[in-house]
Structures are given as C-alpha cells and as structure tokens.
Amino acid sequence: MGRIAIIGLGLIGGSVGLALKRAEPKNTTVVGYDDNREVMARARRAGVVDETEPSLERAVREATMVVVATPIAAVRRVLRDIGPHLQDKCIVTDTASTKGDVMRWAKQELPERVYFVGGHPMAGREKAGLQEAEAELFDERPYCIVPSVDAVGGAVNAVVGLVQALGAKPFFLDADEHDAYVAAISHVPLISSVALFNLARHSNAWPELANISGPAFKDLTRLASGEPELGHDIFITNRENVLHWLRRYMAELQRLSELIESQDEEESLFRTLAEAQIEREQFLENPPERVDARLKMEMPTASDAFMSMMTGALWQEHAKRAQDMIVERTRIGVESEAARRRRLMEDEDD
Amino acid sequence: MGRIAIIGLGLIGGSVGLALKRAEPKNTTVVGYDDNREVMARARRAGVVDETEPSLERAVREATMVVVATPIAAVRRVLRDIGPHLQDKCIVTDTASTKGDVMRWAKQELPERVYFVGGHPMAGREKAGLQEAEAELFDERPYCIVPSVDAVGGAVNAVVGLVQALGAKPFFLDADEHDAYVAAISHVPLISSVALFNLARHSNAWPELANISGPAFKDLTRLASGEPELGHDIFITNRENVLHWLRRYMAELQRLSELIESQDEEESLFRTLAEAQIEREQFLENPPERVDARLKMEMPTASDAFMSMMTGALWQEHAKRAQDMIVERTRIGVESEAARRRRLMEDEDD
C-alpha cells in the first residue's frame, strides 16, 4: 500500500494508529507527527505508529495518504503547511467534527495535484489525548465520508478502505448535509448537556443537588466534561446549523412545557411520553434504513393510527390505576402548595 | 426484627426484596404483594420475597414495616386500602419519585396510630419490571428520607436502618426541598432527553440522523425510553417545580445560544465551556459537601478569580493555535454558506 501519515496524535489520531496496526496492512508504514514532541515519543514507544518524524514536511513528503487528526482550529494551517510537500496524487483526509469549513480550507490550501476526501468518525469521547486512544474506538461506528468535488474515484475508494480497516462503517454525504445532521444529533446534545450541568451547578442548592443526583444527571451532563476547545471550534464552524436546531429544540421544550402546565392535557402528555418510549425502542432494536432523499415521505397514516391505538390502550390502563390521583386531585390544594414551593425557590431567581 | 411487607414487586420493590435478602436480617420475614398474580408467583419462586399473600389486607396485617413501591398514581389507593388493617405503630414508607403529594396522601389516608416516613431511592433505570430487579440497585446511592411531622424518632431510625440494609446512603430533607431538587436533577433531564429524541425523530432526515448518530445521542436520549407512566405521574405531582426549573433551563439554553450567535463572544463561549468542564470534573472527583442552608453563600471572589485565570490561560493557548480560523474567517463567506444551509433545512420547518 505505501506510507500513511497521521498528523495529530490525540484520541482520534492515536486510535487511527492503533486500529491500523490491528488491521496489519501489508507493506504499509504508518508515520506519526504531533506538535508535542513528548506525545510523539510516547506514540512511538507504545507502537501507536511505526515511525515519527521531527517535522510536518518530513512526515508527509513520501506519504501516499495523510490523515489530519488535529483540533479543527489547526486543520487549515496544517493543510497550508503540508501542501507544497505532498507527492502528486497524494490522498488527504481529516477527522474533524464539522465539514463545511474544512472542505473550503482544503480547496484553498491544497494544490490541485492532490485529492482531498473529508472524513468524520462518529466516535468521540469526552476525554481527549493519546492516553485515551484505543484500537476499538471506531468498531461498528458510522464514519462520514465527504468527497471533494474533484476527488477521483480511486481516492474515495482508498478512504473507504481506510475506514473499513479501522472497523467503521462508511457513510457518504455532502458537507452541508453532514453539518446539518451532526448539529442535530451531536452539537445540540452537547449544548443541552452543558445547560443541564450549569442549571444545577449555578444554583444555590448545588451542594444538595450534587449529593442526591443519580445516574440520570451524570449521564445527561456527560458531554459537559468534553474538551472546551472541541466544543468551541464546533460551534464557530457550524454556527448556523447549530442555531437552527437549537431553536427547534427550545420549541420542542416549550411544547412539552405547555403539555405539563395544562391540567387538561394529561392524556396528551402521557401519549407523548409513550410515543417517545416506543419510537426510541424501535430505533435501538431496528434503526430505520436510509432512504434516498427524493423518496422521503411523511410517516403513513396507517402507522399514525397504530401508534394512536397503542398509546391509547396504555393510557386507559394507567388512567384506571391512577383514577384517585387524577380525579380527586383538588386544584386548590395544588395551588396553595405551589405558592409555598415558589417561596422556597425565590433565592434561585436572582 | 419482624415482618416487612413490600407492596408492588416491580424494579424497585423487587430490588428492595433482593437487597434485604442479601443483608440477611435476623428473625425477619419479607412478604410481598402485587396486583399482578403472575408477578407475585415469579417473585416467590425467584426468592425475591419469603412469602406472598393473596390480598393487600393479609400482606400488611401483621407487618411491622410496610414498603409501598407501586407507581405514584397507585400510592394513595394503597394507603387508603391498607390503613384499617395495619397494626398500631406500624411504620409505613414508600419509594415514590415525588414527595409532596405522597406526604399529603399519607396524612389523609393513614390512621394516626401508624407512622409514615417518605422515602425515595435515587436509583432509577429506564427499564421497569421485576425482571430488572437486582440486589445491587441501591448500593452507594443516595436515598432521600422525608419524615412526616408526627413520625417518632424510632420510626425514622427504623427507615434509616432499612436504607442502610439496602446498601444506600440516607439523605434527610423535607418534601418541598425534595421535590424542588429532583425537578432540577432528574425531572428536567427527563424532559430534555425526550425533547432531544423528538427533535431528531420527527425530522424528515430521521433515517440519516439515526444512522450516523453516535454514543452522545444514545446516552442523552436514554431517559426517553423510560416508562411513560412514571414520567406522567412525576410531571403531574411535581408540576410547579418542574415548570420552574424548565424555565430556568430554557433561559440557560438561550444564554448559550446568544454566545454561539455573537461573533464577538468567542472567548466567552470558550470560557463557558471550559468552566463547565472544570466544574464537572470537580463534581465527579470531589463532590461538594452538603452545608446547612442558612450558611450557604455565593462562591467566593477568590474562587471566581481562580476560574478566570484557569480558563484565560486555556483560551490563550487555543487562540494561538486557532488564529487562522478565527482571524481569517470572512463574514461574507460564512453568511452565503448559511443561506445555502437554510435552503437545505427548509422542509424541516413545516
């Protein structure tokens, strides 16, 4: 095969090295480079890469493929710095979490005699650094592939080969689609996690909240422990999509809030929760097949009717059991209690 | 000790049985009751309880302690039904996720000759049912104890003994505090999880979103798989607190949204993410000690200054690496791109 250069030996770059080593590619040398010399020395000692080189130029100049696995903010500079030293027809790929800016940087900074194919393994983790790297990181994970318009088929196939060697599942899409989709399933979850953590952390009741918090709080705030550098770069390179999906998220929260607030919507509230449960279980057991965008259609009426029947039956059962609570509950009792609770919370509102 | 009756043999009631069995209490019989006879038979066969009884009345009439572990909506009826059959000085406790209504129901439905001490183990799981029960469920988990005003010390101590036998850590608070706190660290996370799932599930791009989603999406939407019955009952018995904290959550999301939107706030955005990371790591490694509410004070200025210094240094380092991205990024390029992305998203806004 040749010589693969990995630029940036953190969690992702290090895991690429380990996964390639596990795949035992024939006649291939993996060379690593990192700005941090100590990290490079550790990577070499631990066998994450076969060799390291003291400069970017030397790391890439004989490479048949270059994998840029630096923080997003460093990608442009790396592309600019390696451009003049790349062989003709060298295949360059990256692992950044957003693709629109990266594809533009590649077009601006790389010479036309090389091929760029964007990549993004859906396999993050909140801890960064070489010490977190592992050969299994990409196993069975989706790996987005975003070819540049002028990348030849051979270059794209080579990146597919890399992705398969890493144990991941290639998933083709264009940069706009990619950035819109990851905003919904990755970047808004990050914001939601930070906001949930801040909500509790910045309350005067934090010592109590921290002490009684269970696994739900820990799991849902997990992403708040992510590297601030990664989050920052994601938000500024995917601003419009993130804001779009964040507005939709807040609208959905508002809708749920209104269902909870209205004493006449208890059945709708129950149905909403029951639908989410049923649909998430379906997603886990039997994820939807990807369909061509032009063939997409709304969920058919038959399916709506089925869901309505399912949740209706569940509600009947619950309402029968819950009759006392729902029917006998007095509005007056609840409201005077609410006033007391508001008093308890007043110091929070400052 | 005597005879402990567990009413409701689902995840929580079943786990109470198994954890008690593991604790091997001397001279104690654990009797179980469930509305579902088939569940009762399985609990007896699996040794979750020593005995079962064919009626609520028989299950509780010789009990020294009764643990009500039914869905919240059934608690009131159970308290009403068992009241007349309880021995004098019987200790009644429960495991419901909200405490205000439960404490009122206990006062209304139980005779004065018995003692009620509310309880809430902070150890849920999205899967319910006896088959999910395990002896270790409560190990090292906080267990909220909410004594009724007229519960004698002996009754409270007996419940502390139960909690310790289950392997959990007792945590005293009153019903108002409890319901306010769990709204923040448990009920708002549930809503956030359902909203995140719906955001993706109800998009036309769902097949793509489902296929590229990684562990972040799965973890953060986990609570959407919870029992709709539990969520529903939580929201209607803790409405005011949930709405209060949900408003605060949406305000924090709005604040983060503004930081992301403003091109002049990139450093603040970075600092916000860096603070959340540092503070969450502190929380995991060294959770704050609970302090008396009257002694609570704002975070001291010295600590603010320290955080500012920490995040400032991180930002300098990042900004140096990210210079190209941050300085050379042209507003014009970003905005025309944004227009294209909006087109891509238009069908989402219906």
Count of separate structural domains of chain A: 2
Query: pLDDT average of chain A, as an integer?
Result: 88
Total helix count of chain A? 15
> What is the percentage of strand-forming residues of chain A?
5-15%
Overall 3D form of chain A: elongated
Uncertain runs of chain A with pLDDT below 50, 5 residues or more? 292-300, 329-336
Taken in chain order, the helices and strands of chain A follow as EHEHEHEHEHEEHEHHHHHHHHH
Estimate percent helicity of chain A: 55-70%
Read across the widest sheet of chain A, the strand sequence of neighbours is 3-2-1-4-5-6-7-8
What is the CATH T-level topology of the largest domain in chain A? Rossmann fold
Radius of gyration of chain A: 25 Å
In total, how many beta strands of chain A? 8
Structure classification of chain A = alpha/beta
User: What distance separates the N and C termini of chain A?
Assistant: 64 Å
CATH fourth-tier homologous superfamily of the largest domain in chain A? NAD(P)-binding Rossmann-like Domain
